[in-house]
Amino acid sequence: MIRTLLWVIGKRLAAIVPVFAIVSMLVFAALRVLPVDPAQMSLPPSATIEQVEAKREEMGLTKPIWEQYAIWVRSAAQGDFGESAQYRMPTTRLVLDRLPATIELATCALLVAVTFGIMAGLLIFSLRGTIFETIGMVITSAIMALPDFLLALLFILLFGVLIPIFPVNGRLDPEFSVPLRTGFLLFDSVLAGEPRALLNALSHMALPTLALGLAFSPTIVRVLHSSLVSTYQQSYIRQARLRGLSDRSILFGQALKNAILPVVVLVGTQFGGLFGGTLLVELIFSYPGMGNLMLKAMQTVDLNVIMAVALIYCGTTLLFTSLADAGAYLLNPRLRA
Amino acid sequence: MKRFARLADLRFLLSAAVVVTIVLVAILAPHIVPYEPNDQDLLNILMPPVFAGGSPEHLLGTDSLGRDTLSRLIYGARTAMTVAIFASTGAMLVGSFLANIAGYFGGRIDWAISRMVEIWLSFPPVVLSMLLIVGLGIGTDKVILAIILVDWTRFCRVLRTEVLVARRQDYVSFALLAGFSNSRVILKEVLPGIFPMLVTLFSLQMGISIVVEAILSFVSMGVPSDVPAWGQMIADARIDIYSAPWGVALPILTIFVAVLSFNVLGDSLNRVLDPRSKIAHSS
Amino acid sequence: MKHQNVLVIGGLEVSLPNGHRILNGIDLTIESGRILGVIGESGAGKSMIGSCIADTLPAGLRISRGSIDFDGLPLNSVTAKSRRALLGRDIGFIPQEPMTALNPSLTIGHQVGRHLARIGFASARLREECAIHLFEEVGLDRPKELLSNYPHQLSGGMLQRVLIAMAFASNPKLVIADEPTTALDVTIQAKVVELIARMVENHTTSVLFITHDLRLAADLCDEVAVLYAGRIVESGAASTIIREPLHPYSRCLNLAAPNLSGPLRPLLILPRTMPSAAERTLMQGCEFAPRCPVADTICATQKPSIGLVAQDHRSACHYPERSGSIEPPPARTGALPDVAGTDVILRAGGLQKTYALHDWMGRVRKVEALRGLDFDVRDREFVGVVGESGSGKSTLTKLIVGLENVTTGRLDVAGHSCEDRSAAALRAMRQKVQLVFQDPQSALNPRRTVGSLVTQGLEAQSGRLSGEARQAIAQELLAKVMLPPDVIDRFPDQLSGGQKQRVNIARALCFSPRLLVADEIVSGLDVSVQAQILELLRTLREQAGFALLLISHDLAVVRHICDRALVMFKGEIVEQGPVEDVFGNPRHDYTKALVAAARGAPSSHKAAGRE
Lengths: 337, 283, 611
Known about the structure:
The complex is a heterotrimer of chains A (about 325), B (about 280) and C (about 600).
Chain A: H1 2-32, H2 38-41, H3 49-59, H4 65-77, H5 91-126, H6 131-144, H7 148-162, H8 185-191, H9 195-232, H10 235-242, H11 247-284, H12 290-299, H13 303-331
Chain B: H1 2-32, H2 69-105, H3 107-121, H4 125-136, H5 140-168, H6 170-177, H7 182-218, H8 230-238, H9 246-273, H10 275-282
Chain C: E1 5-15, E2 21-31, E3 35-39, H1 46-54, E4 62-70, E5 73-74, H2 80-86, E6 91-94, H3 108-118, H4 124-137, H5 143-147, H6 156-168, E7 174-178, H7 186-203, E8 206-211, H8 214-220, E9 223-228, E10 231-237, H9 238-243, H10 248-256, H11 277-282, H12 297-301, E11 307-310, E12 313-315, E13 344-358, E14 364-378, E15 382-386, H13 393-401, E16 408-413, E17 416-417, H14 423-432, E18 433-436, H15 440-443, H16 450-454, H17 456-459, H18 467-480, H19 497-509, E19 515-519, H20 527-542, E20 547-552, H21 555-561, E21 564-569, E22 572-578, H22 579-584, H23 589-599
Parallel strand pairs in C: 3-8, 3-9, 6-7, 7-8, 15-20, 15-21, 18-19, 19-20
Antiparallel strand pairs in C: 1-2, 1-4, 4-5, 9-10, 10-12, 11-12, 13-14, 13-16, 16-17, 21-22
Helix pairs in contact in C: 3-4, 4-6, 6-7, 7-23, 19-20
């Protein structure tokens, strides 16, 4: 079974490659038909036309588009994503500096979302038929109306201004310093044996993670709830009951395995949204991750950075979609026939 | 059970009422604002709302340039509604058209459209809309276009499933056997069946469009800076969040109420329009 | 032998929240080791009885009166937890649809194992041994392999055997079988019934066998109770009730079912329908009175109580002796008049159809649905196609009407060859051949009114009809299928199953086709409703308007209205000829098995060893 699982994942990953390639081409093309001239953006406003032209030449913008793309692909395959026009640093360096922070944030947010979502969904479902189910669903709808960036701002208002218990800026208080080995603050502080730094990092992560995770959880709650409702309408649940199995063993032993499938698919396909949400959350909490980098790059039309970060977003989304597919395959024996 | 049915109707009425109010405010904006939204009054900056110690001249206070918050919120509704209606309609038209073609004809067309949706969906929607703005430039119409280009996939994916289900029904086979042309079958047999889901998605999309517009204006990549927008109000007020928190709280509240009412409306519309649930109510 | 009663139900009433009664006072007794059949049509409330015993009534319904005693234990006064403890141990269940009765994401072994663990098998090894032993007992091959299979990998018949094994595993005192054979093919049905009889002997269990099929009950059950509108109207020994019923309803039910042997006679049609829960609560007199052919004035005002009318034979009727006088309409002779013409309306030669299936992973598998069919249908002739699932009958209908393409071979329909695929030819052909779909639920667009549905065929033609003209045509068509004119503005969801099926037929008739293809149009309908449709088809046949190709798994139905029959098995026609010949004197082995199963094996179930 492990072998078939790897085969499925492998097949899906192989299917991603052409999609990835097409996406890279589309983004590349889209970024070249801009109303704004990136060369002009990277020079001071007083630059002369000749200087702008020279800059365009230097940036390779005068060549035909497929040639530009080919050049880009060749360097990208070697890990060179060009130089950032704004920071005048290699893009790869810039991105790799910021990437761990975002991954840390996204992963923790995902954990929060899934844990909270599944627990809430199970709780609300076990209260079905009572007024508490309705209350639960109403609260869920209310949270759904608050996208991640609004929740983030709300948290700043509540826990940053009103009842200041969590910090609202950055990753770590300035008095702490942790040698960065992996870039993942949580790991690094453990590795360096600095528990206070770990706690501080966690408190800085608290609000952004909660905002992202909480914003993502209502969909999980709703999908799990409706999935459980429709699973319970199936004949085999009634038959299990007729064989005398208890409510608890029916929920956990029979129903959950079937009902969790749509949730797995949902998490996989929506992860891209979560990852994209890091963009705004990082901005709002001044969190030094990729999101902040991307925003600045978009405002200054820093093509190389935009391209690199966009592809990372893309790749992550595609990766998680395939994982969701593999998960569905595992959970649904009918697909394996 | 009857109690819950009445509760469901209550939700429909309430959400519909709020939605209608917002739309009316948006339409009547120029006639109901107490001040011009861009009029600055540098002597009265960062005033709190009247219930938090401010003066009744500015019911909801002023921002950092002395502009009246209430007027800006009302005009912000106008912006939000304009963007939302055009964007949602556009996304619905494009998405449902492609969904019908893909689901009905199947085969290679379905494969091609599904691959296209897949490619589109490999981007986080927020990032994609921002990228499109980078490519298209700033402006209300560009925002609308960007939302259409990102969110048509939502309509396409969900409706395609519905169309596939409808396509397999025997009554579609019958219509074909009776000599109906493909377009007639789609219009008369398939479309009425997916209509409830279409309306629900449209309502949801209105909520999403409001949010996207707010996000884009928050990062100054949306409507032009002289057009009042809720997201922009939040961005402006964020600088003074410690001294004047209401400046941030009020637009957040407005967005929340607007999105919530569209979401609830969409949900209840689904229940109202679906003939299967109608039978349950009538018996 | 102990004669203690395993189940005693007294005066059981089940009510809806608004007070309307679905079950209106049921009295039942099952003795140890006996099989009691409960016969009823849909709406009578037969499934409620099982739900009451198991305490699984749907939300809102409750037992408003009466008692259920299980092996001396009054179930009403026992806690819910103790009742649940009985389920699976002392009371077993065999469900109706085996394909959906097991969890699709768990293996058979896992689910059987959980059940065995619950009834006391402590170790995993013991459970496996027991499971294998049980599977062998119910006649499953390679039991050890089956344990690691998933439900979707087994056929309906095999799954039902697994479920039967689980039900009997704990040597329960009572097994409740709720229509366990309805979803299965005829030949499998016979085997399952045989199996149940065998299990009853081996485990000395009592069985409550719920069904709508009279003949099946007569074969298997010792005693039978007939349920109508929430009350038992007749009960007694199975053979007596089937042969000499002493209640008008039982007799009418008998006469409404087509039979496979014996003289061909018109079916008895009962007017109106069974009273709903609301109606039966308000009725003063006998619930059957409005439809009873021998009702009298007292029947409408006084409810008859169930009483002994003969040795071990009870009936709830004021005039039980009148039942014998009920006869079907004598109007015409039983035999079908020969109206068939000599022109051939359909000719198939070497007809083949192969499907190429793509699965989830992209692999392709070839399935041969039809392997070379040769047959004719003459003008105005009624031909029946019988076969079980997998025989290819549905594929044949799709080829005939042009919904699928022929792979090889020849198919001429109403003068159009299958090779001519031009739009004009197809359109012309479709005017002459119409398909009546099997599932009225998916065949009728729920958003169109009945009037719009039956005249839908006219919409496609050029030349717009006025509203009144269309209305008039709709009325005409509805009259032809004997539907009242007021249904014209209703939606399909507001119609009963029989009414929907008649709308289906009317819609096909709108084209005045020369060939009508009807795919299982009476399966799933109650006996009385089925009788209406069959007699309708007979009447239409006499008007000699069209030829009919009737697909059915029910041989009696085919025998009742068809001139000729084709028997299909795994994509081939194994036998064809005049109906009486094929069913009365089958030559091919498969036909013989089919006919034997349909007739029902002789009463060898009720073995001499049991009392």
